[in-house]
Amino acid sequence: MSTLYDGHVHTPFCPHGTADPLSLYIERAIDSGMSGMTFTEHAPLPAGFIDPVPEKDSGMERGNLPAYLNELSALKQYYSKAISINIGLEVDYIDGWEKETKDFLDEVGPKLDDSILSVHFLKMDSQYFCIDYSEGMFGEMIRSFGSTEEVYSAYYKTLAKSITCDLGKYKPIRIGHITLAQKFQKLYPTEGSFQKDILTILELIKKHGCELDYNSAGLFKPFCKEPYPPHWVVREAAKQKIPLVYGSDAHSAKGLGKGYEELIQRDLLSIPLSLQRK
Protein backbone atom coordinates (compact mmCIF):
# COMPACT_ATOMS: atom_id res chain seq x y z
CA MET A 1 0.00 0.00 0.00
CA SER A 2 1.29 3.45 -0.90
CA THR A 3 2.40 5.68 1.95
CA LEU A 4 2.12 8.82 -0.18
CA TYR A 5 -0.57 11.03 1.28
CA ASP A 6 -0.75 14.63 0.11
CA GLY A 7 -2.20 16.63 2.99
CA HIS A 8 -2.08 20.15 1.52
CA VAL A 9 -3.92 20.50 -1.78
CA HIS A 10 -5.66 23.52 -3.30
CA THR A 11 -8.46 23.55 -5.84
CA PRO A 12 -10.19 25.55 -8.60
CA PHE A 13 -11.95 27.43 -5.79
CA CYS A 14 -8.65 29.20 -5.08
CA PRO A 15 -8.78 32.72 -6.54
CA HIS A 16 -5.03 32.68 -7.23
CA GLY A 17 -4.80 29.06 -8.40
CA THR A 18 -5.68 27.22 -11.60
CA ALA A 19 -9.01 26.11 -13.04
CA ASP A 20 -8.08 22.41 -12.91
CA PRO A 21 -11.26 20.57 -11.87
CA LEU A 22 -11.40 18.62 -8.62
CA SER A 23 -11.82 15.36 -10.53
CA LEU A 24 -8.52 15.97 -12.34
CA TYR A 25 -6.70 16.31 -9.01
CA ILE A 26 -8.26 13.08 -7.79
CA GLU A 27 -7.61 11.11 -10.96
CA ARG A 28 -3.98 12.25 -10.97
CA ALA A 29 -3.62 11.22 -7.32
CA ILE A 30 -5.02 7.78 -8.12
CA ASP A 31 -2.75 7.40 -11.16
CA SER A 32 0.22 8.37 -8.96
CA GLY A 33 -0.61 5.61 -6.49
CA MET A 34 -1.49 7.91 -3.61
CA SER A 35 -3.24 6.43 -0.61
CA GLY A 36 -5.17 9.63 -0.04
CA MET A 37 -5.29 13.40 0.02
CA THR A 38 -6.73 16.34 1.91
CA PHE A 39 -8.16 19.28 0.00
CA THR A 40 -7.26 22.40 1.95
CA GLU A 41 -8.56 25.39 0.05
CA HIS A 42 -7.84 28.82 1.50
CA ALA A 43 -10.76 29.56 3.78
CA PRO A 44 -12.74 32.76 3.26
CA LEU A 45 -11.15 35.66 5.10
CA PRO A 46 -13.17 37.19 7.95
CA ALA A 47 -15.85 39.65 6.94
CA GLY A 48 -14.42 43.13 7.40
CA PHE A 49 -10.79 42.08 7.10
CA ILE A 50 -9.10 43.93 4.23
CA ASP A 51 -6.92 41.59 2.21
CA PRO A 52 -3.54 43.38 1.86
CA VAL A 53 -2.63 41.88 -1.51
CA PRO A 54 -3.49 43.99 -4.59
CA GLU A 55 -5.74 41.34 -6.18
CA LYS A 56 -7.67 40.72 -2.94
CA ASP A 57 -7.51 37.01 -3.73
CA SER A 58 -5.90 35.42 -0.66
CA GLY A 59 -9.00 33.45 0.33
CA MET A 60 -11.97 31.72 -1.21
CA GLU A 61 -15.07 33.79 -1.81
CA ARG A 62 -17.47 33.14 1.07
CA GLY A 63 -20.32 32.52 -1.36
CA ASN A 64 -18.37 29.64 -2.95
CA LEU A 65 -17.94 27.72 0.30
CA PRO A 66 -21.17 25.67 0.04
CA ALA A 67 -20.33 24.55 -3.50
CA TYR A 68 -16.79 23.61 -2.40
CA LEU A 69 -18.09 21.46 0.45
CA ASN A 70 -20.88 19.89 -1.60
CA GLU A 71 -18.71 19.02 -4.58
CA LEU A 72 -16.02 17.47 -2.42
CA SER A 73 -18.59 15.51 -0.43
CA ALA A 74 -19.98 14.00 -3.64
CA LEU A 75 -16.51 13.21 -5.00
CA LYS A 76 -15.41 11.73 -1.70
CA GLN A 77 -18.24 9.24 -1.92
CA TYR A 78 -17.80 8.55 -5.64
CA TYR A 79 -14.08 7.75 -5.31
CA SER A 80 -14.29 6.07 -1.90
CA LYS A 81 -13.13 2.68 -3.17
CA ALA A 82 -10.16 4.11 -5.03
CA ILE A 83 -8.68 6.70 -2.67
CA SER A 84 -9.19 8.31 0.72
CA ILE A 85 -10.34 11.92 0.38
CA ASN A 86 -10.53 14.34 3.30
CA ILE A 87 -12.38 17.63 3.10
CA GLY A 88 -10.54 20.51 4.71
CA LEU A 89 -9.56 24.15 4.59
CA GLU A 90 -6.39 26.13 5.09
CA VAL A 91 -7.53 28.57 7.75
CA ASP A 92 -5.67 31.82 8.35
CA TYR A 93 -4.73 32.85 11.85
CA ILE A 94 -4.95 36.65 11.81
CA ASP A 95 -3.82 38.47 14.91
CA GLY A 96 -6.80 40.45 16.20
CA TRP A 97 -9.42 38.43 14.33
CA GLU A 98 -9.59 35.41 16.63
CA LYS A 99 -13.29 35.75 17.49
CA GLU A 100 -14.33 35.93 13.85
CA THR A 101 -12.16 32.92 13.04
CA LYS A 102 -13.59 30.93 15.94
CA ASP A 103 -17.13 31.78 14.88
CA PHE A 104 -16.35 30.64 11.34
CA LEU A 105 -14.85 27.37 12.57
CA ASP A 106 -17.82 26.74 14.84
CA GLU A 107 -20.02 27.02 11.76
CA VAL A 108 -18.02 25.07 9.20
CA GLY A 109 -15.96 22.76 11.43
CA PRO A 110 -18.54 19.93 11.64
CA LYS A 111 -18.36 19.61 7.85
CA LEU A 112 -14.57 19.21 7.73
CA ASP A 113 -12.35 16.14 8.13
CA ASP A 114 -8.87 17.62 8.38
CA SER A 115 -7.57 21.18 8.11
CA ILE A 116 -4.50 23.38 8.37
CA LEU A 117 -3.93 26.54 10.41
CA SER A 118 -1.48 28.93 8.76
CA VAL A 119 -0.03 32.38 9.21
CA HIS A 120 0.15 34.46 6.05
CA PHE A 121 -0.62 37.90 7.47
CA LEU A 122 1.44 39.96 9.88
CA LYS A 123 0.23 43.04 11.72
CA MET A 124 2.21 46.24 12.15
CA ASP A 125 0.21 48.77 14.15
CA SER A 126 -3.15 48.80 12.32
CA GLN A 127 -1.76 47.59 8.98
CA TYR A 128 -1.51 44.01 7.74
CA PHE A 129 0.99 42.55 5.28
CA CYS A 130 0.99 39.23 3.43
CA ILE A 131 4.35 37.65 4.19
CA ASP A 132 4.54 35.37 1.15
CA TYR A 133 2.85 37.44 -1.55
CA SER A 134 5.91 38.80 -3.37
CA GLU A 135 9.50 39.87 -2.88
CA GLY A 136 8.29 43.44 -3.30
CA MET A 137 5.81 43.23 -0.45
CA PHE A 138 8.41 41.50 1.70
CA GLY A 139 10.76 44.42 1.04
CA GLU A 140 7.97 46.78 2.06
CA MET A 141 7.56 44.77 5.26
CA ILE A 142 11.26 45.12 6.03
CA ARG A 143 10.98 48.88 5.72
CA SER A 144 7.87 48.98 7.92
CA PHE A 145 9.13 46.57 10.60
CA GLY A 146 12.66 47.98 10.59
CA SER A 147 14.70 44.96 9.45
CA THR A 148 14.45 41.46 8.06
CA GLU A 149 15.10 40.15 11.56
CA GLU A 150 12.10 42.07 12.89
CA VAL A 151 9.88 40.56 10.20
CA TYR A 152 11.03 37.07 11.15
CA SER A 153 10.55 37.81 14.83
CA ALA A 154 7.01 39.08 14.23
CA TYR A 155 6.23 36.00 12.15
CA TYR A 156 7.32 33.52 14.81
CA LYS A 157 5.53 35.46 17.55
CA THR A 158 2.35 35.40 15.48
CA LEU A 159 2.84 31.71 14.74
CA ALA A 160 3.17 31.03 18.47
CA LYS A 161 -0.10 32.87 19.06
CA SER A 162 -1.80 30.74 16.44
CA ILE A 163 -0.80 27.57 18.26
CA THR A 164 -1.80 28.72 21.74
CA CYS A 165 -4.95 30.73 21.02
CA ASP A 166 -8.45 29.42 21.62
CA LEU A 167 -10.24 28.94 18.31
CA GLY A 168 -12.74 26.47 19.67
CA LYS A 169 -13.26 22.73 19.31
CA TYR A 170 -12.82 22.81 15.53
CA LYS A 171 -9.44 24.52 15.52
CA PRO A 172 -7.17 22.79 12.94
CA ILE A 173 -4.49 20.64 14.54
CA ARG A 174 -1.98 20.83 11.67
CA ILE A 175 0.21 23.94 11.61
CA GLY A 176 1.06 25.09 8.10
CA HIS A 177 4.51 25.74 6.63
CA ILE A 178 6.08 27.00 9.87
CA THR A 179 9.13 28.57 8.18
CA LEU A 180 7.21 30.50 5.54
CA ALA A 181 9.06 33.65 6.63
CA GLN A 182 12.09 32.20 4.84
CA LYS A 183 10.44 32.20 1.41
CA PHE A 184 12.67 35.09 0.27
CA GLN A 185 15.74 34.22 2.36
CA LYS A 186 18.19 34.27 -0.55
CA LEU A 187 17.06 37.75 -1.52
CA TYR A 188 16.71 39.10 2.02
CA PRO A 189 19.13 37.10 4.20
CA THR A 190 19.22 37.42 7.96
CA GLU A 191 22.21 37.42 10.26
CA GLY A 192 20.50 35.25 12.87
CA SER A 193 19.31 31.68 12.39
CA PHE A 194 16.13 31.98 14.49
CA GLN A 195 16.82 28.45 15.65
CA LYS A 196 15.67 29.27 19.18
CA ASP A 197 12.36 30.67 17.89
CA ILE A 198 11.74 27.59 15.76
CA LEU A 199 12.56 25.23 18.62
CA THR A 200 10.08 27.15 20.76
CA ILE A 201 7.46 26.66 18.05
CA LEU A 202 8.14 22.92 18.05
CA GLU A 203 7.76 22.83 21.83
CA LEU A 204 4.38 24.53 21.53
CA ILE A 205 3.28 22.19 18.76
CA LYS A 206 4.23 19.21 20.91
CA LYS A 207 2.59 20.65 24.03
CA HIS A 208 -0.69 21.38 22.27
CA GLY A 209 -0.86 18.06 20.43
CA CYS A 210 -0.55 19.54 16.96
CA GLU A 211 0.79 18.15 13.70
CA LEU A 212 3.32 19.70 11.35
CA ASP A 213 2.75 20.46 7.69
CA TYR A 214 5.85 19.09 5.92
CA ASN A 215 5.52 21.34 2.91
CA SER A 216 7.62 20.85 -0.21
CA ALA A 217 6.58 24.09 -1.95
CA GLY A 218 9.60 26.04 -0.71
CA LEU A 219 11.90 23.74 -2.67
CA PHE A 220 10.63 25.34 -5.86
CA LYS A 221 10.60 28.97 -4.77
CA PRO A 222 13.61 30.71 -6.36
CA PHE A 223 14.56 32.64 -3.23
CA CYS A 224 13.97 29.80 -0.77
CA LYS A 225 15.12 26.46 -2.23
CA GLU A 226 14.24 24.41 0.85
CA PRO A 227 11.07 22.86 2.24
CA TYR A 228 8.94 24.41 4.96
CA PRO A 229 10.37 23.52 7.43
CA PRO A 230 13.98 22.69 6.45
CA HIS A 231 15.51 19.32 7.21
CA TRP A 232 17.10 20.10 10.57
CA VAL A 233 13.67 21.12 11.85
CA VAL A 234 12.09 17.97 10.46
CA ARG A 235 14.68 15.83 12.22
CA GLU A 236 14.09 17.68 15.50
CA ALA A 237 10.33 17.27 15.12
CA ALA A 238 10.80 13.55 14.53
CA LYS A 239 12.88 13.28 17.71
CA GLN A 240 9.99 14.86 19.61
CA LYS A 241 7.55 12.49 17.90
CA ILE A 242 5.59 15.36 16.39
CA PRO A 243 3.46 13.97 13.54
CA LEU A 244 4.53 15.23 10.12
CA VAL A 245 2.14 15.20 7.20
CA TYR A 246 3.59 15.75 3.73
CA GLY A 247 1.93 18.49 1.71
CA SER A 248 2.67 19.62 -1.82
CA ASP A 249 0.69 22.87 -1.42
CA ALA A 250 -0.37 22.17 -5.00
CA HIS A 251 -2.38 24.85 -6.77
CA SER A 252 -2.68 22.69 -9.89
CA ALA A 253 -3.27 19.01 -10.54
CA LYS A 254 0.26 18.55 -11.89
CA GLY A 255 1.65 19.90 -8.61
CA LEU A 256 0.34 16.96 -6.58
CA GLY A 257 3.13 15.06 -4.86
CA LYS A 258 5.75 17.51 -6.12
CA GLY A 259 8.98 17.29 -4.13
CA TYR A 260 7.91 14.19 -2.23
CA GLU A 261 10.70 11.97 -3.54
CA GLU A 262 13.37 14.53 -2.68
CA LEU A 263 12.07 14.85 0.87
CA ILE A 264 11.95 11.09 1.26
CA GLN A 265 15.49 10.67 -0.02
CA ARG A 266 16.80 13.13 2.55
CA ASP A 267 14.68 12.19 5.55
CA LEU A 268 13.58 8.59 5.15
CA LEU A 269 15.92 7.29 7.83
CA SER A 270 14.80 9.82 10.41
CA ILE A 271 11.05 9.86 9.78
CA PRO A 272 10.15 6.53 8.17
CA LEU A 273 6.47 6.53 9.15
CA SER A 274 5.54 10.16 9.54
CA LEU A 275 4.40 11.16 6.07
CA GLN A 276 1.11 9.27 5.90
CA ARG A 277 -2.04 10.74 7.36
CA LYS A 278 -3.46 8.47 10.03
Q: Any key phrases for this structure?
A:
about 280 residues, alpha/beta, seven-stranded parallel beta sheet, 8 helices, about 15% strand, disordered C terminus
Task: Please describe the topology of this protein.
Layout: E1 5-9, H1 22-31, E2 36-42, H2 65-78, E3 84-92, H3 98-108, E4 116-118, E5 121-124, E6 127-130, H4 135-145, H5 148-164, E7 174-175, H6 195-207, E8 211-215, H7 231-239, E9 244-247, H8 260-267
Parallel strand pairs: 1-2, 2-3, 3-4, 4-7, 7-8, 8-9
Antiparallel strand pairs: 5-6
Helix pairs in contact: 4-5, 5-6
What can you see in these coordinates?
The protein has 278 residues and is of the alpha/beta class. Helices cover 33% and strands 15% of the residues. The protein has helices spanning 22-31, 65-78, 98-108, 135-145, 148-164, 195-207, 231-239, 260-267, and strands spanning 5-9, 36-42, 84-92, 116-118, 121-124, 127-130, 174-175, 211-215, 244-247. The strands form 2 sheets. A 7-stranded parallel β-sheet has the order 1-2-3-4-7-8-9. It has a two-stranded antiparallel ribbon with strand order 5-6. β1 (5-9), α1 and β2 form a beta-alpha-beta unit. α4 (135-145) crosses α5 (148-164) and α5 (148-164) runs parallel beside α6 (195-207). Mean pLDDT is 93; it is low at 272-278.
